[in-house]
Amino acid sequence: MSGGSIAGLIAAVAFAVLVVFIILFLLKLGKTVEKVNGTIAKVNDTVDETTKTISVVTQDVDILTRQVEGLLVKSNHLLEDVNGKVATIDPLFQAVADLSDSVSALNHSSRNMVSKVSDLTKSTSTAGIVSKAGQYAYKFMRPEKNQEKETSEETTFNSALKKEVEKAEEVLSEDLITEEPTEVSIEEQGIKIN
Q1: Nearest partner of 99 among 194, 179, 181, 191, judged by Cα
Q2: How far is 121 from 171, CA to CA, in rounded Å?
Q3: Distance between CA atoms of residues 67 and 63, nearest Å
Q4: 122 Cβ neighbours under 8 A, 6+ residues apart
Q5: Other CB atoms closer than 10 Å to residue 106's CB: what's the count?
Q6: Cα–Cα–Cα angle for 143, 148, 154, nearest 5°?
Q7: pLDDT by residue (tens digit) across 37-48?
Q8: Total-model pTM
Q9: How far apart are CA 57 and CA 32, in angstroms?
């Protein structure tokens, strides 16, 4: 064997080793490519599922958007209706408030009138008592009555006068109005009482 054939043999062995390493590399590369293809297939499946899910979600969102728009339109109509009805009722509440003020003023006026009538009644009852006392005094002082009648007249006069004085004291001590009048003046309410 000559030097050329040994060199050829070394080159052939090196070439054979190189081919073996290339084959091993290609085999591993093939397995890696297969794994990558499997992963890509899985990713493609996942992407397809994600696309379907996104499509369904988009459809649901579209449906919900339409429903929300419908609800908003109905809510706006309802709110306009409520506002219209409230605007219609506002004058009614104002009228009730005005009526309340008028009733309060009328109540105050009635209390004043009852107070005046009560004062007039007290003074009238006092005048009646004085009148009765005068009548009994006149009857008592008449000269034509005999002494026995004068004594019975005197007793009758004294008991009648005592009863009338008790009645007058009762009338004067009664409090006809139990509540204090309100502070609403008649002039503020525009009510005139003659």
Answers
A1: 191
A2: 8
A3: 6
A4: 171, 172
A5: 15
A6: 75
A7: 999 999 999 999
A8: 0.35
A9: 36
* Tens of pLDDT, residues 128-161: 777 777 776 677 666 554 444 446 666 776 777 7
CA 71 from centre of chain? 25
Region 159-187: what's the mean pLDDT? 58
Reference 121, options 194, 179, 176, 181; nearest CA is: 176
91 vs 144, more confident = 91
3-state secondary structure 85-126: HHHHHHHHHHHHHHHHHHHHHHHHHHHHHHHHHHHHHHHHHH
Burial of residue 105 (CB within 10 Å: 0-12, 13-18, 19+) is: buried
- Rounded Cα distance between 108 and 115, Å, is 11
